Amino acid sequence: MAGGKGKGNKSKGKGKGKPTGPKHPATEGKDEIDLALEALSVKDAQPGLSEVTALPEAFQTPIAELFADKPYPEGQLCDYQDDNLWRTTSEEKRHLERLLADDYNEARQAAEVHRRVRQYARSVIQPGMTMTEIVDTIENGTRSLLQSDRYGGLNAGIGFPTGCSLNHCAAHYTPNAGDKIVLGHDDVCKIDIGIHVKGRIMDSAFTLAWNPKYDNLLAAVKDATNTGIREAGIDVRLNDIGGAIEEVMTSYEVDLDGKTYQVKPIRNLCGHSIERYTIHAGKSVPIVRNGDNTKMEEGEYFAIETFGSTGKGYVQTEGVCSHYARRPDGPPASTLRVPRARSLLKTIEKNFGTLPWCRRYLDRLGETKYLLGLRSLVDSGVIEAYPPLCDVEGSYTAQYEHTILLRPTCKEVLTRGDDY
Ligand SMILES: [Co+2]
């Protein structure tokens, strides 16, 4: 899930004409759409209606059974460099890691589920599928492997809504009930999957495109993300990581329909530190040079994510919101005067805590007619809304992301796989 730097720029009311086709989330008339969706969500909320009926073999055995008492596999291990080389062999630092063995094993369990879910997703996602079918496939896989319906999604399961943002939209789009968008052959789709075990969230994303004309765009962003991962380390300044990412990203060009674009980093999106049950903790990892001299520190988890674009390299909020999260510092439920808002907040706190969620998850819990209550929770600062973040219409954006851990003795790229 993307960290957004700076305030989302509300583009409501200055839409440039009608959306160009049924495949783009509407940019205008948000309230009408909200009401229409409320009507739809009643119909679509019947349990099982949008569920994938047969569970594929890859998801039939829970991960805990597959591994029994065996530890989960480590991610990619990278030695620290130069001034921190001593950490590699430090007995004291090794001892520290032994104390954290259970913590690491939970993170690796979530990472292993991430690899399995995305491997299956890659094998089935095809143009012609609805976005709803795509996210259901992924999320049902996560729920099954981690037995979320048995032990509760707060114990282990979905870490945040599955992003499947298309084309000029870079982040924070997932379908709401009634969404009829179908994946097209010429689309560029960012699959951003969050999986957690006891609040240890693995945040990792990749980009799917079927038309080879986008190959260089994807290559640029993959290279930029790997550069950010390579540069990251204890005592490294965030500005230096941003600078390295920017340099690599902008060294690529992409030819689209007779025009050449230099790939731009989306300068107001960034990676972020992660803490238990908190996807966006205190630090932002820029993808351009930004003068932030804050350093990375021992023991921190970071989502290193970069976004490249053929547009302006700047995103604004656009379209209907699907993603939300309870603000950890927001006012308590007891201060709310609207009864529906209070009851809705109870459901939210019980099922998601401070993890991000989307409207489909409320539908699945049997909640109906919640949009006014939800609006009241957003307005009173209890719930934060994360609307889709989009570059200019007609542009294309790509994303790659991994979650890393700055262990005392080495850097571990937890979500690394054979695929990316
Ligand atoms: Co993220």
Observed structural traits:
single chain, alpha+beta, binds cobalt (II) ion, 19 strands, 3-stranded antiparallel β-sheet, 420 residues, globular, 8-stranded antiparallel β-sheet
Describe the structure.
The chain is of the alpha+beta class. Helices cover 31% and strands 22% of the residues. The chain contains eleven helices and 19 strands. The protein has helices at 30-44, 63-67, 91-99, 101-124, 131-145, 148-151, 215-231, 238-249, 339-352, 359-364, 371-379; strands at residues 3-4, 76-78, 156-166, 169-171, 188-197, 200-209, 253-256, 259-262, 264-265, 269-274, 284-286, 301-309, 316-317, 323-326, 357-358, 383-386, 389-390, 397-406, 411-413. The strands form five sheets. Strands 1, 2, 9, 10, 11, 12, 18 and 19 form an eight-stranded antiparallel beta sheet that branches. It has a three-stranded antiparallel beta sheet with strand order 3-5-6. Strands 4-17-13 form a three-stranded antiparallel beta sheet, with no helix packed on it. α4 packs antiparallel against α5 (131-145) and α9 crosses α11. Mean pLDDT is 91; it is low at 6-29 and 39-52. It binds cobalt (II) ion. Cobalt (II) ion is lined by residues 1-2, 203, 303, 305, 401.
